[in-house]
Design brief:
Elements lengths: L1 H16 L4 H17 L5 H8 L3 H13 L1 H15 L1 H24 L16 H5 L22 H16 L10 H12 L5 H17 L3 H4 L9 H18 L1
Length: 246
C-alpha cells in the first residue's frame, strides 16, 4: 500500500510539473505522429473507425479502458501472492520499476494523446460516448493527461500476461497474451495512445523481465499463513521422514 501511495503521489507531482509544458506536449505529439508514419506503423484511425462502426463496440472499448486496468492488475497480484508466492516479489518489483520508469519518461517527454490533436481525424470516444475518466485538460487536476508515453495500460497488461504465463503450467496459458493485445487495440482505438506508446512500454517490460530473471531464484518466498491442518500434515510428513531414515 505504501508503494502504491508513493507512486500515486509521484504521478500527482508529474501532473503539476507538466502544467508549464503543454506546448512541449503538443510538439512531442507531432514528432511521434511523424515518426510513426516514417516507420510505416498502422494509422490509429483504422482501429477507431472499426470501433465507431457500432455504438455498443465503442462503448465497450471505453468501459474496458476505464475499468479493467487497475482491477485486473490487483487481481493478478492477489492471485500470485496466494497461489504462486515464489513469483510474487519478482512481478511486484517489475510493476513498481515499470511505473517508476514511466513517471520519469512522463517528466522528460510530456506527450499529448492523439485524442487532443484535432487535425488527425481522431475523436475522443470517451467524451462522445462515455464513460470518460478525464475532465477538460485545463481543469483536470487529478490526472496527468499529457503522459501518453509509455502506455502504462499496455505495460501493466504485459506484466500481468507475462506473470501468468510464467507462474502457471497450463497449455492454454499463452492465451493471456490476448490481454495486452486487446489493451493495445483499445488504447489506440479510443485515441488515448499512439502505437509507439505501447511499443516503448513493451521494451521496458522486456528489459525488466531480463533484469529480474535471476533475482526470482534468489528472492525468499513470500510468507503464507499455515493453518492447523496444514501444520499437522507437515509434522506427520516430517515424522515419516525421520522414521524412514532411522
Amino acid at each position: 500500500m505504501l508503494l502504491v501511495l508513493g507512486l500515486f503521489l509521484a504521478y500527482k507531482v508529474g501532473r503539476l510539473a507538466v502544467d508549464g509544458r503543454v506546448g512541449a506536449a503538443y510538439s512531442d505529439a507531432d514528432l511521434v505522429w511523424q515518426l510513426e508514419r516514417v516507420l510505416r506503423l498502422p494509422d490509429e484511425a483504422a482501429v477507431q473507425h472499426l470501433l465507431l462502426s457500432a455504438d455498443a463496440l465503442v462503448r465497450a472499448a471505453n468501459v474496458f479502458y476505464a475499468v479493467v486496468h487497475f482491477p485486473a492488475t490487483i487481481a493478478f497480484l492477489i492471485y500470485v501472492y496466494w497461489f504462486r508466492p515464489a513469483h510474487y516479489l519478482r512481478f511486484r518489483r517489475i510493476l513498481a520499476w515499470l511505473t517508476a520508469a514511466g513517471l520519469v519518461i512522463h517528466f522528460a517527454f510530456p506527450l499529448a494523446p492523439p485524442r487532443m490533436l484535432g487535425d488527425l481525424g481522431l475523436v475522443d470516444t470517451a467524451a462522445l460516448y462515455g464513460p470518460s475518466v478525464y475532465g477538460p485538460p485545463q481543469t483536470d487536476t487529478l490526472s496527468n493527461q499529457y503522459a501518453a508515453m509509455p502506455s502504462l495500460h499496455v505495460g501493466w497488461a504485459l506484466v500481468v500476461a507475462a506473470g501468468l504465463i510464467h507462474a502457471t503450467a497450463s497449455k492454454w496459458r499463452w492465451l493471456w497474451l490476448a490481454h495486452p493485445v486487446l489493451t493495445m487495440l483499445v488504447v489506440a482505438g479510443t485515441a488515448n495512445h499512439y502505437w509507439i506508446d505501447g511499443i516503448i512500454a513493451a521494451i521496458l517490460v522486456g528489459i525488466l523481465l531480463m533484469a529480474t530473471s535471476r533475482q526470482e531464484h534468489a528472492s525468499p518466498r513470500v510468507p503464507v499463513q499455515v493453518g492447523p491442518a496444514q501444520a499437522e500434515q507437515r509434522e506427520r510428513v516430517q515424522g515419516t521422514k525421520l522414521t524412514s531414515q532411522q
